[in-house]
Amino acid sequence: MDRASLIGPNELSIIPKETVSNILGPKGLPRGPYYDTRKHEEGTSLDGIKEYTVHAVRRRPWARGMNSTAMKYYEGVIKEETANLIHGLRERKSKEVDISAWMSFFSFDAMGRMSFSYDLRMLKDGRDSHGLSQQIENGLIEAAWISHVQWLVPFLKYIPSASKSWEEIKAVGERLVRRRAQDGSIHPDIFYYLMNEDGQEITKPVIEVCAIDGMLAIIAGSDTSATTLSHLWYYLLSNSACFNQLRSEVDEVFPLGEDPLNDLSKLGTMSYLNACINEVLRLYPPVLAALQRRVEPDRGGVMVGDHLIPPETQVSLYAYAIHRDPSHFWPIPDQFWPDRWLSQEEYTLPSGDRIASVITDHEVFIPFSAGPMGCVGKNVAMAEMRAVVSTVVQQFDMTVANQSNLAKWEEDIREVFVTSRGTLPVVLKPRHS
Ligand code: HEM
């Protein structure tokens, strides 16, 4: 098969177009053994459940937690936390700040409140006093190697410190969930739905199982958005023409004095803002590892194009590779060029050359995965990113504090299932007092 590579004795990485629907769609394949690290003695977190029917039942409360009533509450949180971000950055005006770290402070604080009604206070304190970023990174580095030797998972408890960091981050999630269960909440946060406080499920969930999803909420709900936002600042700092075009759109829709946070729905209609976010999700999807699936032994294989993938083969989809394939995105698939997402009669490339058309294949754009096991938090993530980018661009001029960090940014990126990233020091100058 063209555009397929053998990446293990029994594992294929494939990128043809049909992959997405055949493998990730509703009649696709169950998750592969890579996800065994999501299995704990108390139960399995949502993102580790392999069987479609079991997964669908566990996903129900998560889906309710993303309904329009829930979204209203999250939008309120996003507005307040974006305002806290702007306040924190203003206090540090004209000083060097690591914008990548501040994106984490924002997304952790927003996630803490949206998931557990808990204020982690990183934006107010201007630091990650809980050490969550480092804990997550350590835990994910451990989970990444363990995921490749899944047969070891049942024995890890007998090997001192083998999965210490992974266990620690699980414990943080558990603590937050147990505190939330004890205190209750006046807000319809995500755990309001997961703990069946809305009374929609017949059986009350077991708190131990519920607590496992606490870790998922922390990692899935914060690290991913923070990474995307950090990559976006990197690209905008490296491409002043793109920054200026984005600034023009923001200024046109929200002239200085008009707060973008007053109309989050308008942000969804801003074509260049959304093109920039899509473009960064295309080049660096924050889940850098493969979405691994496995052809069941009794299925008789699965067709991708003209090719049969035999039973018991693991099939891995790397969004990073799929998004950079020239048959899916063309031209300059490895370059940041938001224009490819705009509908235009003619396109001007960064080189100045003009072309009549582009290939932008929305069907294979899978930063959030796709199908019944795809990201449940996509709308929340998009709302967060639009709010932060538009407000920061409206409020500040941003310059690189240290060119060498900018040059090293891509070098420092590591796959740890999601993304480990370096620092990005910048200086912010408010556009008005
Ligand atoms: C830019 C931001 C985000 C990106 C790119 C992203 C991407 C993804 C991807 C690729 C998956 C599938 C992972 C897999 O199957 O291995 C996933 C799953 C998931 N995401 Fe996100 N995510 C983002 C933000 C969020 C947010 C903000 C939340 C919560 C509010 C969230 C909650 C989840 C959950 C619960 C799952 C597991 C879904 C399931 O197994 O049914 N994500 N995400």
From TrEMBL:
Superkingdom of origin: Eukaryota
Pfam families referenced in this protein's UniProt entry, alphabetically: p450 (PF00067)
Keyword rRNA processing: no
Cofactor: heme
Keywords: Heme, Iron, Metal-binding, Monooxygenase, Oxidoreductase
CDD domains xref list: CYP67-like
InterPro entries the record matches: Cyt_P450, Cyt_P450_E_grp-IV, Cyt_P450_sf, Cytochrome_P450_monoxygenase
TM stretches of this protein: none
Listed pathway(s): Secondary metabolite biosynthesis
GO molecular function, one term: oxidoreductase activity, acting on paired donors, with incorporation or reduction of molecular oxygen
Keyword Oxidoreductase on entry: yes
Binding site for heme: C375
SUPFAM superfamilies the UniProt entry points to: Cytochrome P450 (SSF48264)
Family: Belongs to the cytochrome P450 family.
UniProt-recorded name of the protein: Cytochrome P450
Organism: Hermanssonia centrifuga
